[in-house]
């Protein structure tokens, strides 16, 4: 970090940290740590990763790989996530092992949501929301890559959830904040910082919490987090929450060697991550239980939804494509998608009040008597392997495919093939005999010029990929 820290930030941190300030300042001049979280439905641990102690699937990497050139990143095998923010796992580990309905309110780009999707007990539902439309699209892409069918992405303002009173067992608010914890990796965060802005952030966080609060069920859990050190956006907001609502503290088990700083405000515990004490960036988290409130009953009878259960004939078109119980097939226009049967009524209800970006896993698009398999099906563990012929690609061909260049792998059969790299699905291509047609989404393709990397240089990069 070369940029000068703002004077009033430095003064506040000196007052906040006392003797520790020098070590803190020193840590800001060190390089940020690289870390990933592995998708346990697709892979195990990385070759040289050092475990992140508070997250079973989190690993620090010794050097930062050229992620864009790693097919596994595009296949949702891992997510590049800052280590401190993986701490939300500790809150989920306190919850009973029973189905949960979770709302991740400030979801994009999807670090917490992909993590939650992996942590949820069976038969749970995750609604991942993002208010900014362009960011909701990125959130949806990352969750599609992660592959869980029990997830839906919405693009709504927090107050839009107030109608669904008492519907969620867990509410995650990873709030937009002044970003002081990002100063080490993002110089823009320093440029945009001002004391006035931290106050505006604190007010906005209170508004967000107040607007969405009715959606949390009495007895439900709020996980509140920011990536800032500023007490106004952290402990002061906990105090405000304690006055605004009837809540009870939930403290998390802690190990001294993690270096997490525990704080307290109005009887509520907070957990702070400072880079001079914990291996990661700045972060704050608190967990509380809501003690009272209302729950609206889901209407028994609802007018028909935009989607409908697939007919027997439509289901027959994708017979044998899916694995996993508890999923139903639905149809929206010409699209077939899989979604948990258990939450079909919720989906009908939620779509009446919310803008749904995607729900479940798209199976494919019906074209006359055929269904063209959807890209997200290739990336989801619900795809039954062996249904389609598979072609294992070399690293060069995998990268060309992800760049949407033409590839000509060997294939005996015509029709749709599942393309894999090291047995991990990357997408689909149709063998027409003299060429392959790819249906890799244009907007997801690798955009950089890859020519200089093909062959030798790519092999060199491969040595640094986290999962080999
Ligand atoms: C800290 S980021 C979330 C990061 C995300 N949870 C993750 O782990 O990848 C905060 C998000 O809140 C969104 N946001 C901004 N203003 C908001 C508002 N008024 N209400 C709700 N969300 C807002 C931002 O667009 C941003 O995506």
TrEMBL record:
Quote the Pfam families the UniProt record gives: Methyltr_RsmB-F, Methyltr_RsmF_N, Methyltranf_PUA
Name the InterPro entries on file: Methyltr_RsmF_N, MeTrfase_RsmB-F_NOP2_cat, MeTrfase_RsmB-F_NOP2_dom, Nol1_Nop2_Fmu_2, RCMT, SAM-dependent_MTases_sf
Active site per database record: 227
Top-level taxonomic group: Bacteria
**Transmembrane residues, as ranges?**
none
Question: Which residues belong to any copy of the SAM-dependent MTase RsmB/NOP-type domain?
Answer: 1-291
Q: Which GO terms describe its molecular function?
A: RNA binding; RNA methyltransferase activity
Keywords for the protein's UniProt record, in alphabetical order: Cytoplasm, Methyltransferase, RNA-binding, S-adenosyl-L-methionine, Transferase
Q: Which residues bind S-adenosyl-L-methionine?
A: 130, 157, 174
CDD domains (alphabetical): AdoMet_MTases
Q: GO annotations under biological process?
A: RNA methylation
Q: Which family does it belong to?
A: Belongs to the class I-like SAM-binding methyltransferase superfamily. RsmB/NOP family.
The record's listing under PANTHER family reads: 28S RRNA (CYTOSINE(4447)-C(5))-METHYLTRANSFERASE-RELATED, NOP2 YEAST -RELATED NOL1/NOP2/FMU SUN DOMAIN-CONTAINING
Q: What is this protein called?
A: 16S rRNA C967 or C1407 C5-methylase (RsmB/RsmF family)
């Amino acid at each position: 970090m070369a940029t000068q820290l703002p004077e009033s930030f430095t003064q506040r941190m000196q007052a906040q940290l006392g003797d520790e300030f020098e070590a803190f300042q020193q840590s800001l001049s060190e390089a940020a740590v690289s870390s990933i979280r592995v998708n346990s439905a697709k892979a195990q641990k990385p070759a040289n990763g050092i475990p992140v102690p508070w997250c079973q699937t989190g690993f620090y990497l010794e050097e930062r790989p050229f992620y864009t050139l790693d097919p596994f990143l595009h296949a949702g095998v891992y997510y590049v996530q800052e280590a401190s923010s993986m701490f939300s796992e500790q809150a989920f580990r306190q919850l009973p092992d029973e189905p949960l309905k979770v709302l991740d309110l400030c979801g994009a780009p999807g670090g917490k949501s992909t993590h939650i999707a992996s942590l949820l007990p069976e038969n749970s539902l995750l609604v991942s929301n993002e208010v900014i439309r362009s960011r909701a699209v990125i959130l949806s892409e990352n969750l599609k890559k992660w592959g869980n069918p029990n997830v839906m992405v919405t693009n709504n303002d927090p107050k839009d959830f107030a109608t669904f009173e008492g519907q969620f067992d867990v509410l995650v608010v990873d709030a937009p904040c002044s970003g002081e914890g990002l100063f080490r990796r993002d110089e823009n965060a320093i440029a945009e910082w001002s004391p006035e802005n931290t106050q505006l952030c604190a007010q906005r966080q209170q508004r967000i919490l107040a607007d969405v609060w009715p959606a949390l069920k009495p007895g439900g859990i709020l996980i509140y987090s920011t990536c800032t050190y500023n007490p106004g956006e952290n402990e002061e907001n906990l105090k405000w929450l304690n006055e605004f609502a009837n809540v009870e503290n939930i403290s998390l088990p802690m190990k001294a060697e993690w270096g997490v700083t525990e704080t307290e405000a109005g009887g509520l515990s907070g957990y702070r991550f400072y880079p001079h004490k914990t291996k990661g960036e700045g972060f704050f988290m608190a967990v509380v239980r809501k003690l009272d409130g209302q729950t609206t009953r889901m209407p028994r009878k609802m007018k028909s939804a935009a989607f409908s259960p697939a007919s027997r004939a439509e289901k027959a078109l994708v017979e044998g494509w899916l694995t996993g119980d508890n999923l139903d097939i639905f149809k929206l226009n010409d699209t077939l998608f899989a979604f948990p049967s258990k939450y079909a009524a919720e989906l009908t209800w939620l779509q009446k009040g919310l803008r749904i970006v995607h729900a479940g896993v798209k199976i494919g698009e019906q074209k006359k008597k055929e269904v063209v398999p959807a890209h997200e099906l290739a990336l989801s563990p619900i795809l039954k392997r062996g249904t389609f012929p598979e072609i294992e690609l070399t690293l060069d061909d995998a990268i060309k495919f992800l760049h949407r260049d033409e590839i000509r792998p060997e294939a005996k059969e015509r029709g749709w093939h599942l393309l894999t790299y090291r047995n991990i699905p990357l997408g689909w291509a149709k063998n027409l005999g003299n060429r392959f047609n790819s249906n890799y989404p244009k907007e997801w393709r690798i955009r950089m010029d890859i020519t200089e990397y093909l062959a030798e240089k790519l092999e060199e990069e491969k040595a640094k990929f986290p999962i080999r």
